[in-house]
Amino acid sequence: MAYNEILADRVRELLSGKNLPVEEKKMMGGLTFMVNEKMCVGILRDDLMARIAPEEYQKALSKNGCREMDFTGRPMKGFVFIDPRGTKEPEDLKFWINLALAYNDRAKASKKNK
Q1: DSSP secondary structure string for all residues of 39-61
Q2: Quick check: pTM over 0.90?
């Protein structure tokens, strides 16, 4: 299992109540939830990945279970990993989903391959 199926179901449930265009894509060895055709949240092993506003980045890093997303060995600004300590409680997971969704409207879509 490349990603936590139980966490994926919890994310699906939260996103389904938002009436947004959500697409699931398997990428980077995990599962990514695209909202409005932009990467929003994802799951890699037992960690949640969230794409958040740059101005929220430093504050987010102080939250329980949150760390820089260093998938490539270099931190990616605006992306964080949250380990199970930070997503165990329903309200904690909801916080991260809502933080990522709040930025999604302003986030730039990645360039599509032709």
Answers
A1: EEEEEEBTEEEEE--GGGHHHHH
A2: yes
How confident is the model over 65-75, as a mean pLDDT?
88
What is the pLDDT of the chain when averaged over all its residues? 93
Compute the residue count for the chain: 114
In angstroms, what is the C-alpha Rg of the chain?
13
Indicate the angle between helix axes 5-16 and 90-104, nearest 10 degrees: 60
Please check whether residue 70 is in contact with residue 80, taking contact to mean a CB–CB distance below 8 angstroms.
Answer: no
- On whether the CB atoms of residues 108 and 94 are closer than 8 A, the answer is no
Class of domain 5-104: alpha beta
CB 53 within 8 A of CB 106: yes
Q: What's the one-letter identity of residue 83?
A: D
Residue 89's CB is within 10 A of a number of other CB atoms, namely 11
Residue pair 110/39 in contact by the 8 Å Cβ criterion:
yes
